[in-house]
Automatic annotation (TrEMBL):
Broad class of the protein's primary localization: membrane
Keyword flag Amino-acid biosynthesis: no
Keywords per UniProt: Cell membrane, Membrane, Transmembrane, Transmembrane helix
Domain Major facilitator superfamily (MFS) profile: 4-382
The name this protein goes by in its record: Major facilitator family transporter
TM region(s), chain numbering: 38-59, 71-93, 99-120, 127-146, 158-179, 200-224, 236-255, 262-283, 289-310, 322-343, 358-377
Cellular component annotations (GO), alphabetically ordered: plasma membrane
Alphabetical list of InterPro entries matching this protein: MFS, MFS_dom, MFS_Efflux_Transporters, MFS_trans_sf
Disordered: annotated span: 384-408
Subcellular location: Cell membrane
Entry membrane topology: Multi-pass membrane protein
Length: 408
């Protein structure tokens, strides 16, 4: 793999850490700024809103810019957002810093995925995209725990200074290692928007939202499930979350490797596994060792879909992939919000802390059904294309039974 991918991975690591680290620092932030925990929690909601809305708008505004230039500007925005957060004298400026950082989140991951795919040949595109998202997965294992520890021991502002440092290294890596990108002077927002009329692009976006929603329907409420149902102590949650994070990295790596060989079968297998794991989690939640194993497998199955889904969108949006890739990140966040909301409804309905697992299993099964439908639609299109070629070459249709699969 090209060394340039490491710069994208490191930048993704910094962005992922920025998203998740605030969860562990909420009490520190709330106490220092004299706001309630609930008010501090809006820093997470504000970030999510910035990802969903800000990314597509930012990319649409800079659609003609060379992608390397766009990546550099996005990293500068990332640095500025974390700098504002580190220096924030009050809650309002901290929220501004968080939203500023969030604006570059989805845009960076989308543009970086397109650049990563362009850096390699067709047989390695999913693995290249997987490397970009490995940074985000590693943020769960290393970045967020490290940032939380730094913030708890040296002050939460030091955590944001650490993120500024990571951003500066990522910026330098992109400037030095990413090759010059072709001009996008002929790009048009209308052309980029036109790809959303393609059925396969819409299906891929829906698959993304449902698959990530399935994962987070369970993950959002895993802490009370593991403590109240499984019987783990609160202290045990940190190593369990690290185990889950390792599962994310493994799943992302495997998903990228096998998606390059057979994309739709890999997605279908991962989503089938996610459906089964979520359903099984309902029963293993009552036993500590099986619950820990299932939780790790949830990370593997949940992130095995990510490289393939992004590769699918980029390939089906051929000719104008940038905005589609960014919207895919927004779709994943919409799915995460939906999964968390539905999971919360099931708990409020009195169905228990394991009920979000069933919600997730239903969403994963729906994503699997869309994947099968997408694959069938593609196969039908290829067959129709072959029949058209045969008619064009021979002057008359050839019976399907005699067409075969082409030269052997």
């Amino acid at each position: 793999m090209p060394l340039a991918l490491l710069a994208l991975t490191l930048s993704s690591f910094g962005i992922g850490t920025t998203e998740f680290v605030v969860m562990g620092l909420l009490p520190n932030v709330a106490g220092d700024l004299s706001v309630s925990i609930t008010t501090a929690g809006f820093l997470i909601s504000g970030y999510a809103l910035g990802v969903v809305v800000g990314g597509p708008l930012l990319v649409a505004a800079g659609i003609r810019m060379p992608r390397k230039s766009m990546l550099l500007i996005l990293m500068l925005i990332f640095i500025l957002g974390n700098l504002l957060s580190a220096l924030a004298p009050g809650y309002a400026l901290l929220m501004l810093g968080r939203v500023t950082t969030a604006i570059c989140h989805g845009a960076f991951l989308g543009v970086a995925s397109v650049v990563a795919a362009d850096l390699v040949d067709d047989s390695r595109k999913a693995r290249a995209i997987a490397m970009v998202f490995t940074g985000g997965a590693a943020a769960n294992v290393v970045g967020a725990p490290l940032g939380t520890w730094v913030g708890q021991n040296f002050g939460w502002r030091v955590t944001f200074w650490m993120l500024v440092g990571i951003g500066l290294v990522g910026l330098a890596g992109i400037a030095r290692l990413i090759p010059r990108q072709p001009s996008q002077a002929d790009a048009r927002v209308g052309r980029e928007l036109a790809v959303f009329r393609r059925p396969q692009v819409g299906l891929a976006l829906a698959m993304t939202a449902l698959s990530l929603g399935a994962l987070f329907a369970s993950f959002t409420y895993v802490a009370p499930m593991l403590t109240e149902v499984t019987g783990y102590s609160e202290e045990a949650l940190t190593p369990l979350l690290a185990l889950f994070g390792i599962g994310l990295v493994v799943g992302n790596t495997l998903g990228g490797r096998y998606a390059d060989r057979a994309l739709i079968p890999t997605l279908a297998t991962a989503l089938a596994a996610l459906t089964v794991v979520l359903a099984v989690f309902t029963f293993t939640a009552g036993y500590q060792v099986p619950a820990a194993i299932t939780f790790a497998l949830l990370g593997v199955a949940g992130f095995a879909t990510v490289p393939g889904l992004m590769t699918r969108v980029i390939s089906k949006a051929e000719g104008a992939p940038t905005l589609a890739a960014v919207v895919t990140v927004s779709a994943s966040n919409v799915g995460i919000a939906l999964g968390a909301y539905l999971g919360g409804l099931s708990i409020d309905a009195g169905l228990g802390y394991t009920s979000p697992n069933w919600i997730g299993a239903i969403m994963a099964a729906a994503a699997l059904a869309l994947t099968v439908a997408s694959g069938a639609l593609e196969t039908r299109g290829r067959r129709a294309g072959r029949r058209g070629d045969l008619v064009a070459e021979g002057g008359e249709p050839v019976p399907a039974s005699s067409q075969g699969d082409g030269p052997r």
